[in-house]
């Protein structure tokens, strides 16, 4: 069997992964998506091929997912972000039953059955206050970069309550807290706690069950993971390091491997 590829074209980042014939991850790459989604997908794919030490002719099947999945012109098929995240979570943690995925523009809670099928799901994609974009906006208001969010929240001594139910009102609270002298670190921690609260609401709506698997770019911030883990209790899984951002792309690649095996069996 040839290698396969999975591409996750997200609103903020585009991720590409390469799996070998045994299903092992041998290459990956991530780029800013920008407004030229097709170019971002091609560049991420090319870098992932280089990272894996293979050529495009070694790839037998490509599946794309995410917000820009239909803009990948070299794909074979597409799958939804929910399906890809479910398969990716299972690749890392086979006993996953509830998956929480928080990216730049969306928050998704999904419950899986024992066949890795999506039983139920809820999305919070109508308001930026329930996504990573809210944390980025909060950081910018306080003159910090996205890269500084994690360290800023970790230095908090006491969180500031951010209770706004939409991004506009929440941002007003941030401005007000700055005006009364609240520490930026405490405001950022408060924003994260607010995001945790919204996450738990979605998970309860799908009747969450352990094991819980946390994925998406926001999970690269340790304080976010720590807060969610404290609320959920045991059986909380998180892929290591930057792999937490590649779960969707890996899920797409595992499905590509299954499709390729089926195609080869029919030949």
Secondary-structure topology with pairs:
Blueprint: E1 3-9, E2 13-19, E3 25-32, H1 37-52, E4 59-65, E5 77-78, H2 81-92, E6 98-102, E7 107-112, E8 118-123, H3 132-141, H4 149-154, H5 167-179, H6 184-205, E9 212-215, H7 222-232, E10 236-237, H8 247-266
Parallel strand pairs: 1-4, 4-5, 6-9, 9-10
Antiparallel strand pairs: 1-2, 2-3, 6-7, 7-8
Helix pairs in contact: 2-8, 3-5, 3-6, 6-7
**Under the CATH scheme, which architecture would be assigned?**
2-Layer Sandwich
Summarize the amount of helix as a percent range: 40-55%
The shape is globular
Uncertain ranges: none
Strand order of the largest sheet: 3-2-1-4-5
Structural class: alpha/beta
Number of distinct helices: 8
Question: What's the CATH first level?
Answer: Alpha Beta
Give the helices and strands as they follow along the chain: EEEHEEHEEEHHHHEHEH
| Amino- and carboxy-terminal Cα gap | 13 Å
Q: How many strand segments?
A: 10
User: How big a fraction of the residues is strand?
Assistant: 15-25%
* CATH homologous superfamily identity: ATPase, nucleotide binding domain
Largest sheet: 5 strands, mixed
Instruction: Give me the CATH fold name.
Output: Nucleotidyltransferase, domain 5
Radius of gyration: 19 Å
């Amino acid at each position: 069997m040839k290698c396969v590829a999975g591409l996750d074209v997200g609103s903020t980042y585009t991720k590409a992964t390469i799996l070998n014939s045994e299903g092992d991850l041998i290459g990956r790459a991530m780029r800013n998506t920008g407004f030229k989604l097709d170019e971002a997908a091609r560049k991420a794919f090319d870098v992932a091929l280089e990272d894996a030490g293979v050529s495009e002719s070694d790839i037998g099947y490509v599946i794309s997912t995410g917000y820009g999945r239909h803009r990948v012109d070299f794909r074979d098929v597409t799958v939804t972000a929910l399906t890809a995240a479910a398969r990716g979570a299972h690749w890392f943690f086979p006993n996953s039953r509830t998956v929480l995925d928080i990216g730049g523009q969306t928050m998704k809670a999904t419950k899986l059955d024992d066949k890795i099928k999506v039983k139920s799901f809820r999305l919070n994609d109508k308001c930026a206050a329930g996504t990573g974009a809210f944390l980025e906006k909060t950081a910018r208001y306080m003159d910090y970069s996205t890269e500084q969010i994690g360290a800023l929240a970790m230095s908090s001594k006491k969180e500031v309550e951010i209770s706004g139910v939409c991004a506009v009102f929440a941002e007003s609270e941030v401005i007000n807290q700055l005006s009364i002298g609240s520490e930026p670190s405490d405001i950022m921690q408060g924003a994260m706690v607010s995001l945790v609260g919204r996450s738990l609401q979605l998970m309860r709506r799908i009747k969450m069950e352990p094991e819980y698997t946390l994925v998406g770019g926001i999970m690269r911030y340790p304080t976010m993971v720590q807060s969610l883990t404290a609320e959920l209790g045991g059986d909380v899984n998180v892929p290591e390091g930057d792999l937490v951002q590649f779960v969707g792309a890996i899920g797409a690649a595992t499905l590509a491997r299954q499709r390729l095996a089926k195609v080869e069996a029919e030949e």
